[in-house]
Each structure stands twice: as C-alpha cells, then as structure tokens.
Amino acid sequence: MSPYLSAQEIKDWQPESLPDDDGKSPMQRTRERMQRTGQWADWQMMGRRMAMGCVALEVTQRCNLDCSYCYLSESSEALKDIPLAEVMRRIEQIYRFYGPDTDIQVTGGDPTLRDHDELVEIVRAIKQKGMNASLFTNGIKASRTLLTRLSEVGLDDVAFHVDLTQQRQGYASEAELNRVRLDYIARCHGLPLSILFNTTVFPGNFAEIPDLVCFFVQQSDQVRLASFQVGADTGRGTDRERITINPETVIDAINQGAGTTLNFNAASAGHARCNAYAYGVVINGKVHDFFYDHDFVHAMLRDSANIRFERRNKQRSVAAMRGFLLSHPRHLLGFTSRVAQAAWRLWPDLLASRGKIGKISFFVHNFMDATELECERCEACSFMVMTGQGPLSMCVHNAKRDHYLLQPSAIKQQNKLLFFNPANGQLEDRMPGPIQVELSRKTARGRAKASTGYSHTSSPATSPAHITTPTPLESTHEETAVVSVA
Ligand code: SF4
For residues 331 and 300, is the Cβ–Cβ distance under 8 A? Predict the structure, then answer.
C-alpha cells in the first residue's frame, strides 16, 4: 500500500475542528495524536511541553521576491490581503485550539508588505492572548523603525529568510549574502528580539552549507537559531530538485561546519521524519554539543515539561530552571556533575573566552513534496497554518493552497453581513461565486511567469500574461466563518 495520500485524499483532508466538549485540554489532544502516530517518546515535546510546534498566520500572500523554491500559490500575488478583522478572528482561533504560549509565525507572503499599523496591531493582539509572536520575513522591508515598533508591542523573534533561492541581485553565493545577513543583524541591535535565520537548502547552495554554519557560529552571540529547510516540490517555485539533499545530508553538512557531531535525536517536536533539532554551546569559537548525553536530556525534558520559560525575560527563565533543579535533587546532581565535567574538559577554551559563552540551535525541517504527502506525518504535523476554516498541516495546505485562498471571508459590519472577495479586495453584499484571479505581467510569479516568458533570465514579453487559477472546491462556501468589525 502506498504511504502517500492520493489526490482524492488530499482533496478530502480537512482542517482540524474542535470537538464540542470532549473535556480534553489542547495538550491532551496533541499527546493522543502523537501516541496514535507512534511519535510518543521521551524526546517528544509536542503534547508534553507544547500543544503545537508553531502556527503560521499568513497576513498577506504578496511577496517582493520570487524564490525558486517558493511554496506560495501561483494566484498569491494577485490576491488582496484578508481584512484585519479576519486576521484577528484567526488569532482567537489559534488560542482556542492550542492555548497560551503557542508560537505564532506572522508570515505570508512577506508580512512586511502588509500595512505597518495593522502589522503592529496583529502582533499586539497575539501578545495580549499570552502567545509568542515571530516575524518571518525576507528582511527587505523590515526596517529598524518597523522592528522597533513591533518589539515595543512584544514581538519575540524575527526570522530572516536569506539564501540563493531568492536570486537577490548582486549576490552570487551564500558567502556574499552574509553581507545581507550582517546588515539584518545590525538592524536588530539593542532590540529585545531573538534573531533566527532560515535557509532553503538546494543543489545550488548545498556545498556552501558548512561555511554558512561557520558564519552563524561566529554570530552566535546574536543569532539564536539557524533553520535549514530541504527544498521541496511544492508551490509556484520553478525548481524542484533535491538530488542528494535530505535531512541526513543536511545534518552532515551542519556537523561539518560546526566542527563537531551534534546530537539531532535528543529532542524534537512532531514527527521524526519532519524535524531534527540540535543545541550547541559556543566557547572560544568552538561548538560543543549541549545534548551529548542523550539519556540525561530525555529525563530532563520529560520531568521539566511544566516549567514555563519566558523568552523575553531571561532572569525569570533562569529562576524557573533553578527552582526546578532545587526541587529535583537527582537532576540537580546530574546537572552540576555534568557542568563540572565540562568545565574540567574545556577549561583552556573557557579561559581564552574569558567565560563568554554563546549558544546556537540548529533546526532541519523536511517539508514534503506536494505529490508525496505521508499520511502519518500529516497527522503528526507540528507546523500548522491557520486557514479560515481551522488549522491545517502546512504540507497539506501547500498542496492545495488555492482551495483556501480563493475563499470569501464573511465580515459583520454594523449588523450587516458582508463578504470579502480576495480577488478584488471588495466587501460584497452577496456571497461571491467561485473566485478566480487573472494574472498579469506584474502578478505572474514562479512557474506562471516562466511559462509565459516572464522568467528571471528572459527579457520581458510585450503583452501581459493571462492565467486563470483553478476554481475553489464548492464545499467550503458553506463553511465560511463570520467575523465582526467593531
Ligand atoms: S509541515 Fe509537513 S514537514 Fe512540517 S511538520 Fe507538518 S507535516 Fe511535517
């Protein structure tokens, strides 16, 4: 039997819905999901520390780049941003599904193309619900002013996507792109933001991954996490190739760059074939594996699951950890003896670094090809996107984006029910019929652009391209949610 979902099964796959009242907490429901899919183990943080790894909140579909492995739909660039009221309703929904402390990726498209006042309100609303907000951006329009405004309302992280798939003008290698990365790091200087970098790994940059890891290690006093995604065959992007690139070869490349073998199996969130995570401590420029003692890490993760770490308040997080260790003598003993052993082993480097210790995490995410979705992984998914109908595995969403994007949103305005049409941005009195968009020279991206002669390398054609997107599936017209505007 094929491990992959058939085209019909992908079509039938529905966003999650909340049972009326099963009396279960979000954490319990997630734990049961992990158990059902054979992913429940000591290393599992889903259902133990978190009800969901993270949820993508797509606040625009527009982007100012055209990545060769882009996951967006071909219709994306022609769609108007969903109304702020609908974004706010989705934030409420995320809270209902997964509770406080949920990590929300404010993403798109590129979220910085959305009205900046609205973006600030979106981050503020996430924080007011006690959830964590990360801005996922290519950085082009993430100015110091915008980052300052967002951090003032509580933005926790900024994740910059920079790599060769973006085909930025004037940068021929990942090494040259380090200039862009350094500029972005400088923009965040002094702001209470964690800095993350996303890199899509593909044949065009695979050989450079070890050097890129070295770069991130050198910046480990400022960069908290370097995330690597294996390029997948999904979305509007023009490139499809993986060749020998898979999580194992990417991990090998990271280890090569880190100069040590990091343990990517000690902790994870979700399915083992989707995610791999390692944590390094940097002393005197050298990386040391924080998770080297597998069994100890598992025991700590299992027993400390209820400790709440506050990302923006280091002192409180340290105090919470101290409290945990003092109330668990076995772990206190294990922890202090390991710290003493490490200090003994590493004292020359500790002396040379004058006690300055950096830390950096590495994450490898293995998105699936749209035609090869493994049912078990979709069920165990730790990375949801919040659609108008509920949260859905990002891989499933990527395989049928237009089904969700080409939907009207019902908005209640002054006691009147209106329908937002994403194709024209209008609020209409009646539910629109099947929504279609027509691509133009300006809005055709990725494969649509390439197929009409608007490729990156070809000279522009003289007349606009007319491409009509597939119509949405009828069924969700009835499922359209209602949002109110004050
Ligand atoms: S988005 Fe895809 S690859 Fe990522 S956790 Fe979900 S199912 Fe796995």
Answer: yes
Put simply, whether the predicted model's pTM sits higher than 0.85 gets the answer: yes
The sheet carrying 426-428 orders its strands as 426-428, 416-421, 409-413, 482-485
Residue-wise pLDDT for 159-207, tens only, equals 999 999 999 999 999 999 999 999 999 999 999 999 999 999 999 999 9
For residue range 92-117, what is the model confidence (pLDDT) as tens digits? 999 999 999 999 999 999 999 999 99
pLDDT in tens, 412-465: 888 899 999 999 999 999 998 888 888 888 898 888 888 765 433 323 333 334
Task: Name the residue of 228, 268, 368, 385 to mutate for ligand 1: max ligand atoms within 8 A of Cβ.
Answer: 368
Which helix (H) or strand (E) segment holds residue 123: the answer is: helix 116-128
Q: Are 410 and 480 in contact (CB under 8 A)?
A: yes
> At 434, which helix (H) or strand (E)?
none
Strands of the sheet with 275-283, listed across from one edge: 286-289, 275-283, 357-365, 223-230, 194-201, 157-161, 132-137, 103-107, 54-58, 383-387, 390-393
Nearest CA to ligand 1 atom 8: 274
Ligand 1 lined by 52 (C-beta under 6 Å): no
Question: Rounded CA gap, 328 and 458, in Å?
Answer: 65
Asked whether residue 479 carries a pLDDT value surpassing 50, the answer given is no
Question: Which of 287, 280, 258, 257 is closest to 353 using CA atoms?
Answer: 287
